Each structure stands twice: as C-alpha cells, then as structure tokens.
Amino acid sequence: MLGIGYFALYSAYNDGPGVTAALNWPTHRGTATAFPLSAFGLSAFFFSSISTVAFPDNTSDFLLMLAVGTFGMTFISSFFLRVIPHQPVYSAVSSDEYTGELRSNRLHRSKSGDSKRGAVREPSEPGMHHAAPNGSYPLSRSESEDAKTHLSVPDIPNTEADETSSLMSKSSVSGTEDLEENGERSDSTAHDPHHLDIRGVALLPKIEFWELFILLGLLTGIGLMTINNIGNDAQALWSHYDSSVTPGWIQRRQLIHVSIISVLSFTGRLLSGIGSDLIVKKLHMSRYWCLFISSAVFCAAQLCGARIENPNQLIYVSGTTGLAYGFLFGCYPSIVAETFGVHGLSQNWGCMTLSPVVSGYIFNLIYGKIYDKQSTITPDGRRDCADGLGCYRTAYWVTFGASVAGVIISLWSIRYHHIIKLKQERKELEEESREA
C-alpha cells in the first residue's frame, strides 16, 4: 500500500505542477519544471525537521502527520493549478468573414514562387494581424503595394491552383506553420515540441524512448539504493568506528544524512533546470549534457561509497548522491517534452517513472543481499554488522559499474541527437536552395 500510494502521489505531483509549469512557460521549460520538482526534493528535509522538533520518539503521531499533511497539501493546491492560454500570433476568423475576404482577395501562385512571400506580407490576409512579423509596426505603403501585385481579380477559373487549402488549414490559426506548396508542415515545425504529440503505444518503436527509459531507470536505481540505505551505511560505519555510541546518537546522524540528501537534491534540481535552459539558449547545446553531468557525479558518489571508512566523511556519499539525483530529475521532464511533445508530457512522464520501480528494486535487493550476508543475528532478533565498510562495499562497486554505463549511454545520446540535428539542418538547407 505504501508503494502504491507513493507512486500515485509522486506521479500526480510531477504530472500536475510539472506539466502545468511546462505549458505556462514553454520558452523556459527547464526552469519552469525545475521549481516544482525541487520542492518535491526538499520535502524529506521538511518532514524530517518536523519529526525532530515536534515528534521525537513518537513514530505513530509522525506517520499520522505525514498522512494528513501530504494529502492535504496536494488536495488544496490542486484547485489553484491552471494553464494560462497564450495569445496566438495569428487570430482565428469566422467562416463568414473568411468567405467575404476570399471573394475580394483571392490569392494565386506565380511561377516565380514569390506569391508565398506576398501572401504572408499582405495585411488583409484572413487570420493575420496587420503587423510585421515581430508585431511591432504595420506594413509601409510601398510594402502593401508590392504585396497587392500578387492579388488577382475574382473571376479566376476554379481550375487554377490557389491558396484556399493553405489558408483554411489549422496552421493559419495557430500561426506556427508556413504556407507551403504542398500544404504540409516544414521539418522544423514538425520537430517543434508544441506540434509533436507522441504518446502511449507510439513510444515503443522510438529509440529515443528506450534510451531515456533505460537511462532514467539506471541512474534512479543507483540513487535510490543510497537514499534508502544511507541509514544502514551510517549504522555499519559508526558501529565499527566507535562501539561506545548509542543507538539514539546514530539515529540523529542518520537524520542528518537524510537532510543532506534532501537539500542537495533540491539544489541539484534547480541547477539542472535553470542550467539546461542556459545550455540550450546561450551555448546552443543539448540538454543531454545535464544527464552526462548527473552520471559523472553518480560515478563519484559510488567511488566515495566504496572507499570511505570514516563515518565522519560519509557526508560525501550522501551529498554527491543528493546532488546527482537532483540533477537527473531537474532536466528530465523538459527533455521528455522536447522529444515527444509537451501536450503528452503527463502520460509520457508517467511511463518514464515506471523504470525506477524495476531498477530501484533490483539495486536495493543487491544491497540487502550483500549486507545480510555480512550480518549476524543478535539475541533480540535484529541483524547487526560490525564490519564497517565491508558490510556493503561490494554493492557500491556494482552501482559504480552501472553509473559508468550511464555515462556511456548519455554520451551516446548526445552524439545521436547531434547527428539527427545536423541531418535536419542539412535537409532544410536543401529545401531552401530548391525553392530559391
């Protein structure tokens, strides 16, 4: 029941505020999705702080507060979520108005191909504002006269090719598609996340889906192993390092590591979301570089986990794990939106979050098997391991290999999408040269 409830709450939190933020700020999608996701990462620190202050040594009341608090905040906040509609570049017109305009101003193609430019610049064209492309000034007199040279009288035969099909298409309402001779969208528009809508079963044949699905599952499983077992790490190291410490003192140290993971996860999500927008807009690079950074930090975290024997230095394990985990989730929704379309982000992100269910279980099972193998059963029935780092070192070497695989996959993804982008740009240049 806990797993079902957590997954439902996790999906609802990401699909609700995350998708709403992506739709409301489409040009800064990474930053917009990073803020609600960072708040999710900070929740562990928030609730652990409440537990320490308000419910010391009172687990039942703390669990009651968790049940009421998580439901109440999610339920109340859901009423304030809404998507703000954006003003389109082109305004829609009624069919009657369009028919009247069409009778007086019918467009036809000239053999030189300049009629397309004339049609776009004509201020009386149905569905267009009387403004220049940037919307800041009207057409000059000379521009209007030049555009009118492409207008013909109303008694043109019906057999002549006209622009009616292009003007009546959905693109004239949305304002994001050019008037092309074949009436279809250009390749650049087809790859626009606002026009892409790949979801459900259509994801399965896509290489992009499987690379993102596997990479998310791999890196999330690595992070969850440490997040779920940092308490066992602290217990094993402190029991071996100083046998005089009390269980209560160790428990407080465990809460400190939970808080460190939470705070740095919050920081990583913000840095990743804002940084991914800067990478795309300023450096003109791929957001997949954020996944490479996350994979590299995970490698460092696993090395720390496999080498650190002093419990006072365990902060490096929890800190790097929280930072890498946050960096992973801060940019992932925006990558999914750009790859498969923003309108299907809720469903697609829900599919993506299925991968950590499998990988998290596998890596936690590996850790548990290794830890239990090194443990002894105490008279009161508890398992205790006093070997320090030897209790779990092997598990971190396994996850180190997985994190190296994550680095390789992320680098391959960067190269793969770079090749696709070059092919797309080359195709657009060829089409422009043919039109010229």
Structure summarized in a few sentences:
With 436 residues, the chain is an all-alpha fold.
Report the average pLDDT across residues.
Answer: 74
End-to-end Cα distance: 64 Å
The structural class is mainly alpha
The largest β sheet comes out as: 2 strands, antiparallel
Strand content: under 5%
Oligomer: single chain
Would you list the SSEs in sequence order as H and E? HHHHEHHEHHHHHHHHHEEH
Rg, alpha carbons: 29 Å
Shape: globular
Q: Strand order of the main beta sheet, please?
A: 1-2
| DSSP helix fraction | 55-70%
Total helix count?
A: 16
Which stretches of 5+ consecutive residues score pLDDT under 50?
1-15, 97-191
Number of strands: 4
Which features would summarize this protein structure in a list?
two-stranded antiparallel sheet, 2% strand, 4 strands, 436 residues, mainly alpha, disordered N terminus
Could you explain how this protein is built, in words?
The protein has 436 residues and is mainly alpha-helical. It contains 16 helices and four strands. A hairpin with a 5-residue loop joins strand 3 and strand 4. The relative contact order is 0.13.
Topology, element by element:
Layout: H1 2-24, H2 29-54, H3 59-78, H4 95-104, E1 106-107, H5 115-121, H6 141-148, E2 151-152, H7 164-167, H8 171-174, H9 187-190, H10 207-241, H11 247-281, H12 288-307, H13 315-340, H14 345-352, H15 355-374, E3 376-377, E4 383-384, H16 393-435
Antiparallel strand pairs: 1-2, 3-4
Helix pairs in contact: 1-2, 1-14, 2-11, 2-13, 5-6, 10-11, 10-13, 10-15, 10-16, 11-13, 12-13, 12-16, 15-16
